[in-house]
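User: Continuing from earlier, I have the next pair ready.

Assistant: Great, send them over.

User: Here they are, in order.

Assistant: Folding the first of the pair now:
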Amino acid sequence: MSEEEAIHVADVSEGIGGDATAEPGAPIELPVVDVLTGRSFITGKSGSGKSNTASVVIENLLDNGFPVMIVDTDGEYYGLKEEYEILHAGADDECDIVVSPEHAEKLANLALEQNVPIILDVSGYLEEETANELLLEVVKQLFAKEKRLKKPFLLVVEECHEYIPEGGGMDETGKMLIKVGKRGRKHGLGIVGISQRPADVKKDFITQCDWLCWHRLTWDNDTKVVGRILGSKYASAVEDLGDGEAFLMTDWDESIRRIQFHRKQTFDAGATPGLDDFERPELKSVSSDLVGELQSISDEQERRESELADLRQELDKKDRRIADLERELEEARDLSSMADQFAQALLGKAEAPYRGGGGRPVAAAEATGARAADSDKGADGDDEDGQSVLKSYDEAVAATESDGDAAAAGSGDPPTDGEASAADGGAAEADATPSADDPEAPTAAGEGGEGPVDDVDPVTRADVAESALRFDDAVELGTREAVIEELRSRIESLPELSQGMLRHYRREGVSDPVAAHIDAGGDGDSGHAYSRHRPVRRAGLIRHAGRGHYAYAVPDLIREAYADRLDEESVREIVRAVETAFVPPAERSYPPDADPSEVGVRDDPDGAGVGGEGVPAGAGETDAGEAAPDGTTSSGGADAADGDGVDDGTDDGDRETGTALDPSESGLSDAARRIANRGRTADE
């Protein structure tokens, strides 16, 4: 065996296990080819000299020009740069070049094709996954290239138990190292595994090794491994080995020898620090061309990462812009919907006095049509067209009342049953006469919609009663139902939790969104509370009351829909009809703590009204089936039983008999009752 075919790494040592054929101090040489292409395992407890042994082998290989790659897990091999031009690649600033998995192919090319020795320092990577990925890619590239090159090359792996553990949990990197151990020899790729815990290293790897080096071990599990492989006498003797001393077992001479390894010649970066000052030696630098080639890969990677970062930033900006536009679009839709609803409410308010048909003035109809045509301009309820309609109607009402009183006073005769029938469609309300002291009693305007009061033709008492009833029915069955339906549809479109928050505002009057959310069954998270609060606010069912508080606004919406022309009892009736959409029967009294008599509900404690729709019979009317003072049955309950709580002009009970009722006990609407009372006063 020539000098370049073997490396001198140790000498024979005295003691058990020594080579009987060699004197102590005899040189121990390792065949270079078997070292470069074989599988070996170096083990020993910390401080026993295993890393020194690996360094001695590496130094001898480098002296003879054989390339190696060292996987350094603790950053202790950079001292080789004191004597050798070796590339130190890793993640620290002390490395010659910072590398990543993208550098794997270039590192394999440098090692195999340009004979550049490399220290792959994985100790500086903060993420273990990154270090494993780098090692995996490098070993893959080495294995793939060696299949073609078949060049002797040695891979040294420190702390191999972390990659090829005895127990479960071996990842792709460990599987690749096992593959190199089993099949790398035929391609020329050798491997040396180094570990201080042989019991933790996969036994499939240890048993396939060509040469093994056992330094001092003291833990029972580790010495048992020595006993199973070398024999029991070595299991006890391995505990007494000195620093750098080891049992060497090789396949090429089938011997077990006790040897003392040489001391490494380069700086021992892995030595335990002492009290002496630490002096780092002068380290050699590698060729700038080598670093330049690797640096170009790093620069390209940084450029790609920078472009990706710019693209991500641009994408984030576009995503935010899309979110803003979607939010603006949703708000615009909400505003458009609210504007449409507001315009419809204003249009209904302007047309309310003329919904009865028949007696609607032509001029007023033209004014109303103009109002409807301009309703999309964002009307605020104060425009001149709407006010002129209402003003003309007020003037016509005043004129009709004065003429009706004069006609009633001049006739002196009460109307006949036939006249009463013509006035109210068959109801026994012919005695009804408008009261002179009731300025708000609605009457028909005749032809005076836009002309002066003097142009209104006189009308008889029956005509006044008929027109008044017709207008009152129009308000009750037209505008009132439209207002109720509109508000109920808003409420019914709300999510269930938002309806619960609206019930909270109804009970409390004024409250804040978080309290309403908790009361409705939600949590105390303000984001959740305002998210569920927003649909209620957008529907206009509550209004901001200052300092983050909101007030229940359904009654105000009803008053505004009628331009504040309804009395409070009528407002409460409509409110109760609206609240059936979300208020349980037990809570429908309005306000919640009011006495039933105050809201016109006598026999229905839940406040739902006779018709079950939350609209009780009109104030002052008797319930269905209740006897009137004259022994007859009142029709007020029958009308309420229709479900709307409003006098709809139908005849029930005594109306079929033709018996005239006292206006105060009948089922007449409020306006008709006032007219009847006025007629009584004139007759008396």
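And the other member of the pair:
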Amino acid sequence: MCAAPAGRIPAAYAASGRRAVRVTLVAATGFFLFRYGLGLPVAATYALFSAVALGGLSRIPGTGRQRAATGLRALPVCWLLVVVGTCLSVRTWSAVAGMLIVGFALAFTAAGGPRPAGAAPGLQLLYILPSFPPYDPGSLGERLIGTTTGLVLLIAAEALLLPEAPPPSYRDRAAHAARTAAHCATLLAVPPYALTGADSEAAREDGAALRPLTVPEAERPAGPGLRDRALAHTGLATRTLLSRLARLTTPPGGDQGPRVTAVLRAVAGLSDATASGLGSGPAPLAAYAELAEARAHLAAASAGPVPAGAAAGRRPPVLPPAVLRRHAAVLEIADAALAMATAADLAVRGRRATLPVPPGPFWYATSRAPTLWWHRARGHAGRRSVFFQNAVRIALALTAARLVAGVDTLPHGFWAMLATLTLTRTTMDETWSTIRRALGGTLAGALLTAGLLTLVGTHNEVYAAVLPLWMLFAFTVGPVKGVGWAQGLFTVLVALVFAQLAPSTWQLAEVRLLDVLVGSVIGAVFGLLAWPRGAHDELRHAAAELLRRAAEIVVATSADVAAGGPVAAAPFAVSGHRSLHQAVILAESAYAQFQSEPTLFGGRGRGAALPTVDWQAALIAGHHTLWGSERLLERPPAPLGPAAAESAAGLGDRVAGRMLLVSAALDPGSDTPAAPVPRLDPDLPGFAAEPPGAPRRYYATVAWLSALMTDLARIPRSGPAPGPATTTAARTGDRAPRAAGPRRLN
């Protein structure tokens, strides 16, 4: 298969074929070893279904070695699930209670990142299998032996058999983007102090390449741990740095001064050193210190008027407003570069990082792993989190399926639960569409199974010969052709397995069809009752809540800057940062799920996600609010003067008002008139104001508010044309191409 010339085998079939070879080899080896070699049918069953669970049902992203590492870490969890399922199967009520708790916990692990999310369906199956009668604690040892054998063989096959070439890691992407930033900063440090069109486009493309939705799932830094958080922080800081460099205008008068040049050269040096550090290079201590010193000199030179009574020799020269605007923009670039270097050092070295770590944006640097996991779980433990919604939906559906199977003594009742697990989707429309195709495929598979069992009878050697060939075919074709094919092929597969465990007749096909029908009905019921629109409704609410929280931050920050008070005098803003950070997390998770869901049938009702909204622009507005506010509040207090203070506070109020206007259009109340998302002019009157004697902090505030208005103007897709900082994804729309094959609920 691997030796086939490039282009002969479609990519989708090649990928599923490699996975099918591994699963078939492991499952067939374990099954035949225990069934015919050692005469242990229970161990044979668990060896086969363990391989199918983590190798076929699960969709763990990454290369074979990455999946093997995930499987190795999941091995103790698999043992625990088999033990708990065996012990709780003594009574229907205990099995049902266990299913509710275990089902929710496993589904909720999706909040921990793509790998736990991908493994969750397979782990669910490893609990479902032993939770059914017979209650036989004496067979626990045989069950564990079979489970361990199947999983160990699968881990070895994933690591050694048919290896795939790994894609570029997120660290590699960040390092490449940092080198691009170094190149741009070098160009901006020499005449004519501007980027070419090709350089600006390269900066935009490299920044877009760091967006999580453009990165393969296995490489996304989405986990709650220190290094994953720091790597995600690195990507965000690098994207901000590239955006600021691309937006930097030419200096007034054609000369930017030696201090600005020194800062840009130091930015280039730190960016290059950070790129090396993300590989195998040392921490960029010297480059970091150089940029920090150059930034301090530029900040002192553009500090603006000093309080009355200060020594005349210490009074800096009064600079023109155009120069102060450029100084503010260059200092923003320096701040982004410093944050990028600190985050990259944390991502590479963890708690052994050597660069200074500010306590505010890097709050996670001193927290232990259990604390960080608790933060992630607590952040999603509410009905507004799509991870919580999905976990509740699937846990209730599996619990109901286990109750029905136990009360009605449904033959092979775990097939009904397996159907509920694999056919329930995050929206009712998709669940119903999936069930229709699955029932059609199951019916076709049941007819084929009935004919096979009638013709072959009890000749187990025929089933044993056909099983590996059919398994290879099923796991190659099913994921590519869709859920109907997958269910039909799997129906025949389970018949081939159970016919070798006990004498079977054509009625086994009837039982399989009945079980899938029961599981489908239960999945449809809970898909209808529990958040039937999936992330569509939640995204609207989350984006609107994000903008409302951002409006609070804008008002508080601009008022603090206008007052010139110390950071400690603004506890409301600091507290608001936590709320806005949580709102960003919930909106990003809803947006990620929204990307994979089909458009709702029915259009523009209050419950429909608006098709004319650029949701990515709303998320960017939240990030820019956090970053800009934190940087402004970290700076030493400086009085603005009456005119500058009035201008800063007024602009902040007006930007916050625009945010509230957009949020009301995204998520209107019951008595809010329906209206499209307003088209806003990003150039509010007042952004070009130059109050007499205004310091650099004023111009930094105005630059931040102006960037937020540009973000708000991009949210309606029918609004103004995208500006130069618009990402590729924002220009081409929200939705990513959907992968072939069925999408499971994680």
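Worth noting for the second one:
The longest helix spans residues 321-349. The radius of gyration is 30 Å.
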